[in-house]
Amino acid sequence: MNKNITGPNFQRLGQLFVLILLALFILIPFLLGFWTSLLPTADISKGSLWSSHISLDNYYTAITQTPIIRYLFNSLVISFFTMAAQLLFCSMSAYAFVFLEFKGRNTLFYVFLATMMLPFEAEVIPNFVTVRNMGLLNHYAVMIIPFLTSAFGTFMLRQSFLQIPGELKEASEIEGLSHWRFYASVVMPYSRISLFTLAAYSFLASWNQYLWPMLTTFSDDFRPVQDGLRQLQSQESFNNWGMIQASAAIVVIPTLIVLFIGQHYFKSGLNEGAVK
């Protein structure tokens, strides 16, 4: 009997040890970066990780002497509208692939999925030529329009919509609900966990873009944070490592907020589903 009790407990302790070890590997670089942002640049240049002058001066310098707040605002605008557009268009296309009957539906869906195999770098040149001819360079639109929808989002929501019982669709037809009414009042609430997941994924993917904004934005009025950090390093503030590290720490804050909010709603949706 003791052997049966000790075995599972020992296995659980081993799992906790592995999880703690992995958490440390993930958290240590972030904590080290945050700690570095509190140190004077002179101490950072010497390679010292300890200083008697720990303060928030680097954060004050980053906020007052660099356009980091403007970069944050630009990224928030771009990421929010990209997220909203993908939720709308991906859900509509997924609905069509599940609930609308038309010739070649499955073939079209497989062609749609095939676009996921193309790396983004292969699309950069034709997309750049297109937006340049449309006169969209150095504008919010150039960061939003090419990402209004995604094959991955459509695929994920289609798989979620396929779990909706067919009886609900039949009942809605008997009640005389239109496709729009069924989509808004039944399909979307039923798939809210997948929608929360796609919202967090699309927001973070847009927030972390680097190559595309570097090619298409040329001024601080529209430059997002990832390209903005690179710009700070190329300016006269290059040697101010404390300020640059503080800017990087500020940039991380919105992504952490999105992850925590998404995790909260994801758990809430799972608990409601378990109750039902």
TrEMBL record:
Gene3D superfamilies: MetI-like (1.10.3720.10). GO terms for cellular component: plasma membrane. This is Sugar ABC transporter permease. The keyword Cell membrane applies. Keywords: Cell membrane, Membrane, Transmembrane, Transmembrane helix, Transport. It holds the Pfam family BPD_transp_1. SUPFAM superfamilies: MetI-like. CDD domains: TM_PBP2. It comes from the Bacteria. It is found in: Cell membrane. The keyword Heme does not apply. The chain crosses the membrane at residues 12-35, 76-100, 107-128, 140-161, 182-204, 241-261. Residues 72-262 form the ABC transmembrane type-1 domain. It is a multi-pass membrane protein. Belongs to the binding-protein-dependent transport system permease family.
